[in-house]
Amino acid sequence: MDEKRDFLQVRTQKVNELKENGINPYANDFKALHTSQLVTELFKDKEKEEIEACEDIFSIAGRVMSVRSFGKAAFLHIRDRKGLIQAYIQKNKVGTESYEIFKRVDIGDFIGIKGRVFLTKSDELTILADSFSFLTKTLRPLPEKWHGLQDIETRYRQRYLDLISNQDVKKKFLARAQIITLLRDFLLNRDFVEVETPMMHPIPGGAAAEPFITHHNSLNTDLYLRIAPELYLKRLLVGGIERVFEINRNFRNEGISTQHNPEFTMVEFYQAYATYEDLMHMTEEMFCYICNELHGTLKIMYQEQELDFSSPWQKLTLKEAAAKYANIDISDFDDLEKTREHAKKLGIEITGHEPLGKIVTEIFEEAAEKELIQPTFVTHYPVEVSPLARANEQFPSVTDRFELFIAGREIANAFSELNDPADQRNRFMKQAETKEKIDGEPFQIDEDFLTALEHGMPPAAGEGIGIDRLVMLLTDSPSIRDVILFPLFRSERPKN
Q1: Per-residue pLDDT tens for 375-430?
Q2: In terms of domains, do 234 and 121 share one?
Q3: Which of 54, 130, 232, 488 suits a disulfide with 197, CB 3.0-4.6 Å?
Q4: Going by C-beta distance under 8 Å and a sequence separation of 6 or more, which residues neighbour residue 193?
Q5: 171 and 81, same structural domain?
Q6: From CA 126, how far away is CA 106, in angstroms rounded?
């Protein structure tokens, strides 16, 4: 701690000295007209003579990552948004006064340089500085050069240091941005309209999860950070926006793990005159498009397992998957008592109030989910766990719904939408009754949504995809915290 305090005092003194000499240590008058990548690309295939014959002046700005001083000259590496480039500064080139100011530059500072390019004896492309500008003086040290930032919690809490220290981390978040752009372009090219719906809801809905509660003082009413945008996006179907999507945050007041963060990003999209089977085809096409654009192949490695996104993907009903991986005769799922006994043997807690379909689903979650490594559509979820999905016309105890599993985790959830207002009200009533019996808590029915359905919602299908989990897969990241820039933590580190 004393070492850090001493470092801060030394750097602060340098700031004061610069100011006393009329130098602004936080200037904002330098124009970075070029990037390290642009300069490198311009000269990568050129011979030394051609490079050194070029009289173009390049203007680069960035953070100083290394300095090798030789008294009257110095080599330094500057990192900008596109990469790293070497610069060379000489006292007799920039002048004595300017070089004396340069001698106050430390690793971590931001500077700007202007100059021509040349090749060093080791053939490294380098900018020979005609001038340099002090842009920002840093007061605290960067992570140690060779070992980087190692402490996991520090990396997550101080992501800016992680980005400076670990270029692979920066590449991961640039990949995240690219994935979201590809996903958005995929939908826009299919005539979907991007919208924004409320983050604060008067009634929590759209998914079964614990909400965060806040209070609006002027209205004197409690509001809920949204669990999902589903019911608002369906209102837009009623209003005539037949293909609609939203990429935004959801909030669930639940546990934190390698797969869960209380604040997470999803895309939800709805298409009129489509079924869940249409969305299965579309999802395969979407994932293959994104994977191929990002990696140039449909086969990628995730945590030492090869994932193959090539079509066609495996399809199983929920009962088939549960029976297969729990080693249960599928006909037992038609008997409530037998199903309860199977659940108890798997260590699933049973209160006696759970309907048959919910217990079968819990057996699937316990025994099958983790086994679904290659992309797999699991279909025909029970009505009891799918309150907003259309019932299958041939087997009304299940719904026209799928969830997509990859690498043992759920990535997407979709179904043909329920648009019968009477059926929807009945489902909500049963959901309320079950919640009160199991949790002892009341369930609020969204009457405005039911009123919207009474105005007529076209037949449609909708889907939600967890963007954080998708990015995890496509960047080979073991934890959701690796793909969220600022994951949630306690405000202070836990004390030993």
Answers
A1: 999 999 999 999 889 999 999 999 999 999 999 999 999 999 999 999 999 888 88
A2: no
A3: 232
A4: 241, 243, 244, 245
A5: no
A6: 19
